[in-house]
Amino acid sequence: MAPSFLITAATGRQGGSAARVLLARGATVHALVRNRNSLAALELERLGSVLFEGDFDNVPAIQAAAAGVTGIFLNLWPTPNPEDQLSQAKSFIDAAKQANSLTIVVSTAFLTGRPELWTGVDGLEPYYTGKAMVEDVVRQAGLPSYSILRPSFLMHNYLIPDSQYHFLELAPKGILAHAYKAGRRMPHLDAADVGKFAAEALLNPGAFNGHEIELGFQNLTPEEAAETIYQVSGRTVRVHGRTDQEITSQRHLLPTLPFQVLANEQDLTIDGEYLQNKYGVTLTTFEDFLSSEAVQLLKSLPEA
């Protein structure tokens, strides 16, 4: 009998990718979605997923979606109160135990496992606290297998609507403003590649058991990112280094800024080639990602 898996946030980039990989490999997919009539949900159903409608606080929906599954891919959204994420994670773990699931794979964020870098840091500690709590409860769940995926900076953050939370001036003005010092780099990752890793971990729990993986591929400077955007779109993007005053005034408006400041103090780069070779998962370059999103990229930049 084909293995079956519950995919949370199944209409998102990570969950949708995991669902598609698993379906292509012959698995049964239970897709938990907030709106079963959305276009993304209907497409998953067309591909063969079994839809379950409910949010992360709907315990009966979670239990129904988890019934009979071999494993769960857990990808929770950030919440203002970290305790909410913890409560949601516990609901999925309880459902996994009731279903006698063999494994749980959770997606959090890179550096969650290095609290010395974010504890007490304005703009970072609130973000990471909930994710660290989720990781802890997954480790302690007592399931036969668990894996933790920690994605780095996601490539779709250059596209609208996400870019307004990361690069405020990019869409209206074509300016890539940042807080990096010269030469500092940030690891970039296609969110779909998180789904590919999650699918492999679900299908091969023994090979991934206990692995806590910092996920990233290309380590880019803002100048390299801007040049790649130009090569794909044909539209020039100007790069602007933010002043200390700008960083201070916009720190709470742009979630990316504290991470960029951290990159000035710590080497955050990730060896993506090593990840590909170790796990056999092909990762996506920034250029290939932008090319696949060419229409949305043009919408995310001012007209030439």
From TrEMBL:
Family to which the UniProt record says this protein belongs: Belongs to the NmrA-type oxidoreductase family.
The protein's name in its UniProt record: NmrA-like domain-containing protein
Keywords: NADP
A Pfam family recorded for this sequence: NmrA
UniProt domain NmrA-like: residue ranges: 6-250
Domain of life: Eukaryota
InterPro entries in the cross-refs: NAD(P)-bd_dom_sf, NmrA-like, NmrA-like_oxidored
